[in-house]
Write a structure and sequence with these properties.
Distance between the termini: 23 Å
Bound molecules: adenosine-5'-triphosphate, magnesium ion
Helix content: 40-55%
Number of strands: 10
Number of helices: 18
Strand content: 5-15%
Strand order of the largest sheet: 2-3-4-1-5
Shape: globular
CATH topology of the largest domain: Rossmann fold
Largest sheet: 5 strands, parallel
CATH architecture of the largest domain: 3-Layer(aba) Sandwich
Structural class: alpha/beta
Number of domains: 2
Length: 405
């Protein structure tokens, strides 16, 4: 019988007890919030590869802003937290509507605010009462009015806040998703500028998105990236990975009284396989825990879990890489990716790929062309003979899959 109550959950945000690392980023976001509380707002942008832990960090810090968790200095903050996950169908109108709707929801949770400002919110009176359908075409006039109303709602809330709360934290996860027409960057800029003009500067913006989000925001408005302090998430350190595994097992003991141990070798192997990618770590740890039957996870459990049908490499491939990946049926093509995976951070010359893969020139050329067309690899814009893999996580997966999987 496999051991029950698997504490490793790749598809859920990191629960506070399993959260590891990110000390610098936490300190930086704590600072942004504290400065905002003092009327000197700072905004932050969390950037990183898929599965690196952006949403988990943002959610953790939403808890700090709300005061559920203390800052690193032990302070309890008290922000109204407006937290949204955006998506690719968001438009300018739906974006503003979501912000206004969530602001209203969060304010109505606070008894004191209910009577104080809720009735004065313009957005409600103008757009909700008239029954305006937000998602249909609206005129330019209406569009700019929509933002003005939102701005004036933020001003009424923040200028009437006295000491009731510290400010508003407006957090957008998946901020790379909305199309340029949604003008996310511009909305952020105009909101913060208005708070400053009206001298109620207690709004902290926090965004999270994939690499490239800064350029995306810049395309909307050149000044937008300067608004944000940029926090680039890197893989976790080896010891932090081991910490996550140990904390997971401690959690099972605390919650269910079930004692499951892991050998040092097995923990180190899981950390090594994941190369610090938190999502990978959860997938490998989940699989090894599931494989175990005697409540001691050892090296055999880890290696057996890798070769299972629908094991960790298949799961990772399906989530991140399957759509760009065609080498399973073409072993030669696989050699090209394998060679490139040794240099995940730098551009590689065609000649170097041929040498490293030990394949025929024509085979490498065909593979490069096929991979390029599918977006599996990137080609340098100016120097066409240079190629690289799009992410480092992809390199980790390629090497692991064909070595261990
Ligand atoms: N600091 C951390 N400590 C422990 N586990 C973490 C940490 N950060 C993330 N994880 C785990 O890694 C997985 C992916 O995390 P998360 O969803 O936050 O990443 P993401 O960058 O938002 O991914 P995506 O790009 O898919 O939105 C989750 O299982 C989460 O529990
Ligand atoms: Mg996320």
């Amino acid at each position: 019988m496999p051991t029950k109550h698997n504490p490793f959950t790749p598809d859920k945000l990191a629960p506070p007890k399993l959260f590891a690392g990110r000390k610098q980023e936490i300190a930086d976001i704590d600072d942004c919030l504290r400065e905002t509380k003092d009327g000197n707002p700072h905004h932050f942008l969390i950037e990183g590869e898929a599965g690196i832990g952006k949403s988990s960090l943002l959610a953790r810090q939403a808890g700090v802003a709300m005061g559920e968790v203390g800052t690193q200095d032990g302070e309890r903050l008290d922000f109204v937290v407006v937290s949204l996950a955006l998506h690719d169908q968001d438009s300018y109108v739906s974006l503003i509507r979501k912000i206004a709707g969530e602001l209203k929801k969060q304010l109505s949770r606070r008894q004191a605010m209910k009577t104080l400002v809720l009735q004065t919110l313009q957005f409600l009176s103008r757009f909700e009462v008239q029954g305006l359908r937000y998602n249909h075409e609206i005129s330019k006039d209406d569009e700019s009015q929509l933002l003005e109303h939102l701005q004036s709602d933020f001003v009424s809330v923040l200028s009437g806040k006295r000491n009731d709360f510290d400010g508003i934290a407006l957090l957008f996860d998946e901020a790379d998703k909305p199309p340029p027409e949604a003008r996310l960057g511009l909305v952020c800029k105009l909101l913060t500028e208005e708070m400053s003009r009206k001298r109620c500067d207690y709004l902290c913006l926090g965004l999270a998105g994939l690499p490239g989000i800064l350029e995306q925001l810049k395309a909307g408005h050149a000044a937008v990236p300067r608004l944000f302090e940029r926090l680039e998430l890197k893989p976790l350190l080896h010891d932090e990975c081991i910490g996550v595994i140990r904390k997971g097992l401690a959690e099972v003991y605390e919650e269910h009284g079930l004692e499951v141990a892991i050998t040092e070798d097995a923990a180190a192997e899981i950390a090594r396989l994941s190369e610090g990618y938190p999502y990978f770590l959860q997938v490998f740890a989940h699989a090894a825990y599931r494989e175990d039957t005697d409540r001691l996870i050892d090296g055999d459990d880890v290696s057996r879990s890798l070769s299972r049908k629908n094991g960790p490499y298949q799961k990772l491939g399906a989530k991140f890489f399957e759509h760009v990946y065609l080498a399973d049926n073409a072993p030669d093509y696989r050699g090209v990716l394998f060679a490139m995976a040794d240099h995940p951070r730098s551009w590689m010359e065609r000649g170097a790929i041929i040498a490293a893969s030990r394949l025929k020139e024509s085979t490498v050329d065909n593979a490069l062309r096929a991979f390029k067309e599918r977006g599996t690899i990137l080609q340098h814009e100016k120097r066409r003979g240079l190629y690289r893999l799009p992410t480092q996580a992809f390199a980790v997966w390629i090497k692991g899959k064909w070595t261990n999987g």
